[in-house]
Amino acid sequence: MKKLLEGATILNLFMLVFTLYCVILALDYGRNSRMFPLAIGIPAAILLALSIVAVWKPAILRGADVHLGDSSASEPNVGEIREAKYAPSHVAAMIGWLILAAVGIGLIGFRFAVPLFVLLFARFEGRAKWLAAMMVALFTWAFVVGYFELFMKFGMFRGVLFGDMLPLY
Amino acid sequence: MFEGIAPAVAALANPQVMGFVIVGSIIGLVAGILPGLGNIQAMAVALPFTFGMERLTAIYFLSSICASATYGGAIPAILVNIPGTPANAATTIEGYPMAKRGEGTRALSISATASALGGLIGIASLVVSIPIVKPVVLFFGPPETFMLVLLGMVTIAYAVQQNMIRGLATAGVGVLLSLVGFSPVTGVFRFPLGSSQYLWDGIQDVAFLTGIFGLSEAIRSGMDARKGVPAAEIIHAGFHGALQGVRDVFHYPWTLVRSSVTGIIVGIAPGVGGSVSNVVAYAMTAQMSKDPMIGKGSIEGLIAAESSNNATYGGDAVPTLAFGIPGSAAMAVLMAGLTLHGIPVGPWLMREHMEIVWVVVFGLVAGTVLSCVVGFLVARWLARITTMSMGLVMPVIVMLILAGSFAVRQNYWDVLVTIGSGIFGFFLVSHGYSLLPVIIGFLLAGAAELAFIQALYISEGSPLIFFKSPVSLILLLSSIAVVLYPVFKSRLLEKERKHEKAA
Amino acid sequence: MLISLRILSAVLLSFWIVLNDFQQAVAQPAKTLALPSTINLVIPYIPGTGADIQTRVVARFLPKYLPGTPTFVVKNDAGAGGRAGVQTVYRSKPDGAAVGGAYTPDALANEALYGIDGAGFDFSKFVPLMSTYHQAYTISVGPKVSYKSLDDMKRSAKPVPFCTTTGMDMSYIVIATKAIGIPMRLIPGFKGAPTAMAGLLRGDCEAVSLGIEFTNRYLKDGVRPVAVYGAERQSIWPDVSTAKEQGYPLELEISLAYFLPPGAPAQLANVYRDGLAKLYRDNEFLEAIKAAGFTPTYADAKRTQQIVSSLSSLFSKYAPDLRDAAAKTQ
Fold first, then answer.
1. What is the pLDDT of residues B428-471, one digit of tens each?
2. How far, CA to CA in Å, does B264 sit from each of A17, B130, B258, B277, C34?
3. CB B61 within 8 A of CB B21
4. Which domains, ranges and CATH numbers included, belong to chain C?
5. Do residue B176 and residue A37 have CB atoms under 8 angstroms apart?
6. Measured between CB atoms, which of B172, B195, B402 is closest to A105?
7. Of A26, B14, B311, B421, which residue is 20 to 30 A from A127 by alpha carbon distance?
8. Structural domain boundaries, residue B112
9. pLDDT, tens digit, 9 for 90 and up, residues C188-235
10. Which pTM value belongs to this model?
11. Between chains, do C80 and B271 touch, taking CB under 8 Å as contact?
């Protein structure tokens, strides 16, 4: 059971679910539309299933080890699933920061989200001093506004709270 | 053919024109450095500024922007593992490890030299092919394009590191991701993932690539910042380091030529561009190389990646100038510039405006060379970025990536795609998967399917169309050779080992 | 006497009041509309296309004909098969900050194929400003093909293969071949007219259906026009008969229309219409459009609305055939 919750297994499961989604939908498409998705999706699903089974039987993967040129990139027991070297809580925190960035940009737009994100991340995650964090935040804000908006004339997203609409999904 | 050279050269000798070429090269270089942006956006913004210019000046200006962005994209690829343009994706694999061990100056210099030489080889091939360029373009119909893309896709086998099953599985996922969206050849909106509008055009490649390469690396850097991993110390610094990089390129002449030729061939096929040549040339070199540092900061691998993506411009320009078929999106904008200045682009261009063709050629040369010279000169200062604290650099990089990703289409959902692919890329690398198979599958599958189905439409369903033309057959045999090469190589190695043991 | 004096006074008083009002009306300047300082010209095409090039020329010259001389920024919003840019304008506030441009057959083809909900807009609700680049569509064959007339193609033993892009090109092929009775099969997926033309020259297909000015550039390479879908013969092709002359009264043309979002006030629309009308009399602008290889025709808002209505009816009539053709490629 513990092995099912390992990162690599979840990753393979996620890819398998997406692959099966594509294969199942493709079965309903016309001949030309389903050709490639099925030709690629079915073997990919089988290989992903094998990767998941290899959690309990690593020998399945060992036979398919390859060398990259003559480099020493092949290591012993490379067929076994390698555990991620980061603590799950750290990974979750980093993903949380990215979600915060996305929500911030969506709500208040680049003009405010950029300096806020840089300031808060540099200070609380990067453990920089307030002054250094503020300077970097200011520089980034000036660059985004100056280069993207003023020079390139891209209308950077202003955020739902400031009147911009999300595009149709 | 040579009748237009004199006015083209005379225009370039004008100090004002030269000034615009220098400015254009710097604009392209800066656009390339920023993740998500590139020559397309820079040229589109520059277009209105050209209205007041004399015609040849305007074309020199736009051509220099076009050619200079790709080297610009190598700079963040090497220093912070974030490709500045999709055509620098493979550059990260070798360039960044070099920068991490303190050889950033050397890596930037290698990249500048390989880019310049690759670009020159590409443009030289364009010049040489001018007399035969129209038949060359007409050779590349859907069956030939499919075979060319297939050749690119079999390099996935080379790009797999460590385990073939996992590598091919992720390549398959990359292929399926590229098939999301409306297929112009089948008229079906596939795998909508709940979307009715946004994903119609599929997963946008800039958003996906900057996410899976750039943002995933930024996440790792952020994690390292938590752990207090020290920044790199610079070795091989200064001018000495930069010169060493120049010398390094000349130690691998065959790699340079082979990768440049790959870039040229990929460029000729419309719709398949620098992002493809970059990964394909790198993957082939990675398999053939005897360098033990492949995957860990190999000079040879870096040369392959950077020479091919610049050589592609020579290939891209072939269908553009011969037929008015843009070899890439950047060429489409260049064509717009030509048209706006009263030169409609098409088969008549080479008949009636040969001087314009030469201006484009010299503009591409100038842009390539100037951007690389500037890059070479500033390499030692740029490399200092690797010594900075990741806690301060990482949030800046994240925001620049997201801003660049948004700016391409000014669509908020692209920001979410970048974040999603960044998280996906992070987990792939953390668990020992290589990103290259996913990238190759993602970049090539759409073009492969389009060409394949179109070919079947033309032949009314007969697969024999793929074996009728000599170009198609040569490309098919090349694919087979590419697939069988590792098998022969390992058998040869086994024989050698047996001989050694016997001896 | 008294009565006459009263009447005279009343008349004089009335006259004075009217005169006063008239003077006041003349003396007061008309309220000028303030436009935003930056205006987005949104088109659903990528940079480098014909619509993009023409729109950039418009963006360059139009400001001087509008109050406040605003800056125009061309936005290429090319997603969702050409619907994204039109949707952007459809959902924009009608305050003059966004102006849309699109080939009318393209937008209407999308509406016919996907319905108003699927397309994300109702084109009839846009406020038209003007249209330009009115080009008759044509049908042409490759150098190795022997068809000389529409009847030849109609009598073909096998379906005639057409190289096609998406959108209006494909729609016009379906409509024309259905109306005339030409057996047809589509070779879809060509990205852009130049690629379709290369396909024709390479022999991937036997025919294409594209605008007359674009097709004209390839005659030296062996492309041969069979008919023009116009009301009368075109001056650049005096020897090419119209479909009407060949017995098939079909008129298909492309035009590039500019429009404001739904609900834009009449005063705002009139400011743009006046400005555009003056623009299309500006010789420097007209020369710039011609230098870029396009013919600068002009149709006012009323005529543009007629074109839209007529095309809309045509696409509605053939919507089942368009969907059927799209389904066959699946």
1. 988 888 887 888 888 888 888 988 999 999 999 899 999 988 88
2. 38, 14, 10, 8, 53
3. yes
4. 38-134+255-321 (3.40.190.150), 138-251 (3.40.190.10)
5. yes
6. B402
7. B421
8. 2-502
9. 888 778 888 889 998 999 999 999 988 998 898 899 999 999 888 998
10. 0.80
11. no
